[in-house]
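User: Predict structure, ligand pyridoxal-5'-phosphate.
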Amino acid sequence: MKYPISIQRTTHSKIDSVDFENLPFGKIFSDHMFLADYHDGKWQNFRITPFGNLSMHPATMGLHYGQIVWEGMKSYKSPKDIPLLFRPDQNAHRFTKSATRMAMPPFPEDAFIQAIQTLVELDKNWIPTRKGYSLYIRPIMYATDEYIGVRSSETYTMMIFTSPVGNYYSGAVKLWATDKYVRAFEGGTGFTKTSGNYGAALCAATEARKMGYDQCLWMDGVHHKYIHESGTMNVFMQLGDTIITPELSETILDGVTRKSLITLLRDRGLKVEERSITIDEVVEAYDSGNLHEMFGSGTAATIAPVSHLLYRDKEMVLKKVEERPLWESLKTELQSIQWGILPDRHNWIISTSDTLASV
Ligand SMILES: *Cc1c(COP(=O)(O)O)cnc(C)c1O
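Assistant: Predicted complex:
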């Protein structure tokens, strides 16, 4: 289904002021954004406008009670200069799940994909071509009723904007397996990208940084020992010859990178298990020399190898990243598919036109 989207182009492109060879993460924004409004029970007024500030009523409900959900994905340019999107249907579907959990109206998944295709096509000159760089896409929906009673809003705004980005982490990451803070619990919102999840985690991340670590490794809130994930990454660990990632549940974000890596690992004939794993099992494997690999996976970071893991007062130092071939070869394979260099054997890639990209 095709949704009508009105387009108002900018008359002041900022593109010439951007150094595309030296991009930070998430600080530079492209020329246009997509907007849509929800009122009277339906999504309407689909439009692309020049990127700019919003004007908000002080009682805008999303600001107060956190009815806000978002997504994160990337566009890459193929060797033939075609803008590519990686599994946007997965993000569209997760956005629906997040919105539903937050009592928000789902945005039609086909409109989500069409809006992104249209926006990225319009700003395709903003897709960096430097290796490892990409155009980050941020869809976000928030409650807009002007009301300070606590209830679900009746109006919402959907917005999508893009940001040409460099690397998220510059190297390997050091994790603190914290049993002091908890990110997610059964019955909660851990499986959604809702803003409160991230705000609530910041204090723990700040404490981790003070201790010399980059991020927390989250564990469950009841036993404080079952591993969930880290920051905005799912985690994988290789114990012996088996690659383990915690199984999905309400407490874990269903990462697109995670599910893609599981497929790629199984394609290689490697043994992958999605199952519960405790920090004790990891410590034991480390002590017996069986913890061969640990890495995080997510759109922003792609794959980030873990170099250090702190649990209570035990610091585990993993093998030097140069001596661990798995994460790097996986990252290369995934990125080569995303960049249209390797054949897209699982039909993960679409271009900004409706047809499958010829890569
Ligand atoms: C976004 C996110 C991930 C990774 O998901 P991808 O779809 O791979 O980007 C993992 N954990 C959390 C908490 C996240 O917010």
